Amino acid sequence: MAIATETLSDVCRAAKRASRVLATLDTQTKDAALEAIASALEERVPEILEANALDLEAGRASGLSEALVDRLALTPARVAAMASGVRAIAALPDPVGELLESFRRPNGLEIRKLRVPLGVIAVVYEARPNVTIDAAALCLKSGNAVVLRGSSSAAHSNSILGAVAAEAASGAGVPEGAIAVIQGRGREELRELATQTAQIDLIIPRGGEGLKAALLEHATVPVIYAASGNCHVYVDASADLEQARRIVLNAKVQRPGVCNAAETLLVHRDVAAVFLPDVAAALVGAGVELRGDELARELSRPVEIAPASAEDWDTEYLELTLAVAVVDSLEAAVEHIAEHGTGHSEAIVTRDQDAAQRFQLAVDAACVYVNASTRFTDGGEFGMGAEIGNSTQKLHARGPIGLRELCTYKYLIEGDGHVRS
Amino acid sequence: MAIATETLSDVCRAAKRASRVLATLDTQTKDAALEAIASALEERVPEILEANALDLEAGRASGLSEALVDRLALTPARVAAMASGVRAIAALPDPVGELLESFRRPNGLEIRKLRVPLGVIAVVYEARPNVTIDAAALCLKSGNAVVLRGSSSAAHSNSILGAVAAEAASGAGVPEGAIAVIQGRGREELRELATQTAQIDLIIPRGGEGLKAALLEHATVPVIYAASGNCHVYVDASADLEQARRIVLNAKVQRPGVCNAAETLLVHRDVAAVFLPDVAAALVGAGVELRGDELARELSRPVEIAPASAEDWDTEYLELTLAVAVVDSLEAAVEHIAEHGTGHSEAIVTRDQDAAQRFQLAVDAACVYVNASTRFTDGGEFGMGAEIGNSTQKLHARGPIGLRELCTYKYLIEGDGHVRS
To answer: Which of A127, A348, B324, B361 has an alpha carbon within 20 to 30 A of B26's alpha carbon?
Structure first.
């Protein structure tokens, strides 16, 4: 645990030292430490709620909205959920030490490519205090030290949760410094963290565009951005329209505030006149506000749709709003997605295998769906277990960032006095 | 090919458009285009040498050293070597479309993880003109568009080589804009290139620390740094000393100017008195200047060694100089490497299997050798074929950057009307 008198660079150096030991811990030790963390969370509920109450009080005093206060609030049930999340991570396969490749060169050199931890991961988050525990558990399981920097509004909660995790882990054989919490002391400190290239191997931000912009400007440490998702559902000429309606509704309505929810519906001209009035009525019935291009508005009648502005195609609403456009072809849909998409999750609804394949090949995104809702982009839904976010970048990790994505690899080469000629 | 009147952002946008088509080309088309490039190089030797002569003339006039003039110079043999390099890349397996994983979820969703091109890769280089062709061929084979930015001293050579490649590729069905050369118009332009996040998916710099610093400061596009190699050979207490001598000499002397050459020799105290006089004599005999810590100097006698300063441990000499230290244990060697190494290539010479394993696990580097020279860190030596550099970073690509490392992946998910509940 970071103590107030330690400097940021002390904390990072201690994490680096701890990471060398962590990288060599066996699965059993790491899993036992995770179980110790889960038990400690369950045992220390009163302390945790007490610290959380201080944050809630300060939040209410400073006029935090009720929605934000609710995100911040811990309850015995929420703490229990954290503990069971930690146990679920313990139950996942250990990614460290996995042999990715192994080959023998003609000269007799034996080369193995082995998955190893990254080292020290900094997680910068603005959200719920449970991220403290989720991130600590994922990093520990993947053999990484973690430096956690939550928001100042959750300072007491994050601090006690970090202390509970660090103390339990340390009692179970995890080196001191492996789980550290630093408090959000403003952008100056974020900049310092983001330039500790000798100590920090990766920064994962979980927050809004302001946080992303600050890191883009200042970070010299590698960053994986869990960027926004401007996701599309394209209803092809040959779509099963009943299926299409179900998928569009699910992608928009089931949980509109998340990055894998749909923000734009694209409909092939050949089915627009049949499909649009039906789906528009269903969407409006579910409380969705629609904004359409001219043709979409015309073909949706009798449902009345507001006109879409140019910005609508680039907007991640994260609420019950959906942009609607009619396109002339699959290629036009692909083009629209290339221009406006963010490379997160894109879907086609079609009964035409060839169209499905063309769409999947041509669309440049982490996840490309055929006849399924974009809402499935999620580490849990992919069977990877918990995730620390979804990456829309192409380097290193694309899509759900789970345990394996928190690792790198190294080559181990064995010779018998081999020299190069 | 970029024409002088095109702006940098025109070139990048054209490359992005081309990359969408490139990503869908089959192996046969790409290999035929590579063969066309190889033939065109062979056919257009006179033009290429003529352009090169202009660069050589300007270089001599501006007082370029003979070594740099030699790096710049093209000959019929060097052009032929480029052509055969392109054919070797054509002969490599196509990384694109490789199925990395495939699984079916309990709900029936079929998920495939497929290797796909990154998109547009910018290669910024200061070195020999042959990089123009190497980089173009590697990017084409991996389905990526490439924007090539060489140094102004090689402007005419890079321009004709880029034109030869682009024209030949375009005649063989590769979209226009897939291979573009821009001229080094100074740091302002580099900054513009390094911030084209909508068009460029990756920048690979091949150059000195100045280039790296400029990119670290300005780049918002992802960069893979092929950083320097401060590589160590550690001679363990149980080493076969004859093998150790051979490996140390090879790692230092065989080609001192490259990143996988050794820069520091660490010797276990138990064998230092026997090993050092012998290896020091051999190294000095091979023209190596030695700089030792106190104990190394004492134990190397009768060979006289200059004292090492604190900076020596952090210096990548890239010439016939070697720092030498005596360490008390394998752990002390690991500690020294953790403090001074750059994570490139590190070697232990030992007959003790347990020591070998401890070293390989504990040393955090791209390539960790047992009883072999560090000089083997190379795409060709690893059987990956040509490489575009060696990465010392941990994200995405570590070690040799070959065809697969120029790719990303995407998830293709097929359902039958699946929605999330």
So the answer is: A348
